[in-house]
Design a protein that fits this description.
The complex is a heterodimer of chains A (191) and B (207). Chain A is mostly helical and 191 residues long. Helix content of chain A is 63%, strand content 0%. Chain A is elongated, with a radius of gyration of 20 Å. Chain B has one domain (2-24, 33-111, 121-200). Classes of the chains: A mainly alpha (191), B mainly alpha (207). At the A-B interface, α5 and α6 of A face α3 and α4 of B.
Chain lengths: 191, 207
């Protein structure tokens, strides 16, 4: 009986590549973007706490040259979306323990993204949460914004790092399920 | 009627732009105005209320329907909090309200077998949460009535009612809980509509 090869759609092919041969490079690029963003938040915290700058002046490193990077709610929301898309698109290649940690980062980012969506909605409608004087996220009712977003980025970043380390040093049973080339070919570490 | 609606929309937009401290951090000259929040609220609250009222007459909801209703309740609470200038709860409790809204979503959407026991416990807890939220919401509604439709307890009551109705999606309710939820849904619908009307700018008659 003749069989017919059904060609995969473009999206399926790309996602397959992304979680196969392309996973290593895509993950490296994604982690580079995430680290760069996190460094900006840390720089902002250093400017406030170590250098004693006033909060409106503390704009991180790139924000000093391009202030709109800090003040644009569109940009913050855009980055939250990039993070979310990256976490979702790169997830299938993770296996075992690494997948659990990556999924934890994904769910925390879902919440972080919702907070930014709420901020964007307030900025767009000119109506602020509970009559506040500026766009305010839910957790911001309890914690200051700079510290809160530093915290959010930290609690997304830490499980991501753990996931990547476990992904690169899989157990034999985890390696068997992997379709990407991220793990080194040396003897795997049994943690 | 159409002209009146357009006029009201214009008033709401003008009112919003005239607010002090309109220092939104947005780099595009776009403001869609607060009217959209009220329109979405007018859709979201009836969806949640209709679910609670019709549940006794329809087959049990599937996962998608439960997720839709619990999600809609969460959106409605956020919009209520945006439209309200204050509520009758400390602002520090708002993250707790968020967590209470996230719990039914977790129960509905999570499929991980490691959390089977947690999901089962939350489902068993759900009728109690519905009852507690209903009791607190009715206290707020009575306070609002006693204060001549005071907006703060009115909105607080709606928020509490919506939290209770979000939990109603994950419980296996008995007759008493069904009746409780239906009453709560009606009260939330009425209070939400009245609360929204209170936020609209007053239109004075032409001399």
């Amino acid at each position: 009986m003749a069989t017919v090869d059904v060609p995969a759609s473009g999206a399926q092919t790309f996602r397959g590549w992304l979680n196969g041969r392309g996973h290593k490079i895509a993950l490296n690029v994604f982690m580079l973007i995430v680290i760069a963003h996190w460094v900006e938040h840390i720089t902002q915290a250093v400017q406030i706490y170590a250098l004693g700058w006033a909060r409106p002046e503390a704009k991180g490193a790139l924000g000093l040259a391009f202030p709109w990077l800090v003040t644009s709610e569109w940009l913050h929301y855009g980055f939250a979306i990039v993070m979310l898309v990256g976490l979702i698109m790169l997830r299938p290649a993770f296996t075992g323990r690494a997948r659990s940690w990556w999924t934890a980062a994904l769910w925390i980012q879902v919440w972080h993204h919702l907070e930014h969506l709420l901020l964007l909605l307030q900025a767009l409608t000119g109506t602020y949460l509970l009559g506040q004087k500026a766009p305010t996220s839910i957790a911001q009712l309890v914690f200051p914004r700079v510290e809160l977003h530093l915290f959010y980025n930290a609690i997304v970043f830490i499980p991501m790092v753990v996931a990547v380390i476990l992904h690169m040093r899989p157990r034999p049973e985890e390696r068997e399920l992997m379709k990407c080339t991220c793990a080194s070919t040396r003897t795997s570490a049994s943690v | 009627m159409g002209a009146g609606l357009v006029g009201a929309q214009h008033d709401v937009l003008a009112w919003s732009l005239a607010q002090p401290g309109h220092d939104h951090q947005i780099d595009l000259p776009v403001t869609i105005g607060p009217l959209i929040l009220r329109v979405v609220l007018l859709v979201a609250v009836p969806v949640v209320a209709a679910f609670a009222m019709l549940r006794g007459f329809l087959p049990e909801p599937d996962r998608r329907a439960a997720a839709l209703v619990a999600g809609t309740a969460a959106v409605a609470v956020l919009l209520e909090l945006m439209v309200a200038n204050e509520i009758d709860l400390p602002v520090q409790t708002v993250p707790l309200v968020g967590a209470l809204l996230a719990a039914p979503m977790f129960v509905v959407l999570s499929r991980d077998h490691r959390f089977d026991r947690t999901r089962s416990r939350l489902c068993r807890l759900a009728p109690l949460v519905v009852s507690v939220c209903a009791a607190l919401a009715f206290v707020e509604f009575v306070r609002a009535l006693a204060g001549g439709w005071a907006p703060v307890p009115l909105r607080t009551g709606v928020v509490l009612a919506l939290v209770g109705l979000a939990w109603f999606t994950i419980c296996h309710p008995g007759m008493l809980v069904r009746i409780q939820a239906a009453l709560l849904a009606n009260a939330a619908l009425l209070a939400s509509a009245y609360g929204l009307a209170l936020t609209l700018p007053l239109r004075t008659a032409a001399p």
